[in-house]
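pls read this protein:
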Amino acid sequence: MNVSAPTPKSQYLVRGVLESLAEDKLVLNIPGTDYRLTLVPAVPASAITTPVGRRIKGTIHANALRIHAAAGGGRFIEPVYGTPRIVAGKVLEIDEANRQLVVDVAVPMTITTLPEQRFDIFTVGSMVNFYVNSGATFTPSL
């Protein structure tokens, strides 16, 4: 198993445009792509001071079901519009102690795994794919 050295969390910031905001969801448009991700704000909506239509930075976190190592493939989020359900990408960082991976799936996403997930199948740079539970969150950089 290849465990990467800690890296600055700012490296994994998602940069997008805030398309809409409510207490229980926000829509994040990812520039340069067709992605419009529906996410749950990890802070109260009133704490998000970025106006709708403006750029926002933050992190995305999701809970994965079983993660599979892939021999190849690309980076994607399905559906393109809506709540992320199926994702695939390249492992950027492995944190077995906290049962998390950072995966580049068109944007960096921190993934928490199931307790029984094997980590010996991951290396930094390997490709993975998996389903995510509903409720992926966005935490803005405040």
